[in-house]
Amino acid sequence: MLMTAKSVAAGVSPVGGVLALALASILVDINPLGITGGLILGAAEPSVRPRLFRQLLTYGLISVVIAPFLAWLAFGGW
Question: Which chain regions cross the lipid bilayer (predicted)?
């Protein structure tokens, strides 16, 4: 989503938009399918990798559902 003059005129704060995108990119990247999660999983001991994979995947799925709501609560008033 690009921050355009039309969205700013509609009341969307550019600061809130940039912060929400930055927060979303950080939260989503820490899952086993992202680069950071893959590096974490690759550096783990082989015996704990299946459990760590499930934990990171669960975190990623929960963050997709909860993070937009939390970002809206935090930056909705900007």
Answer: 20-44, 56-75
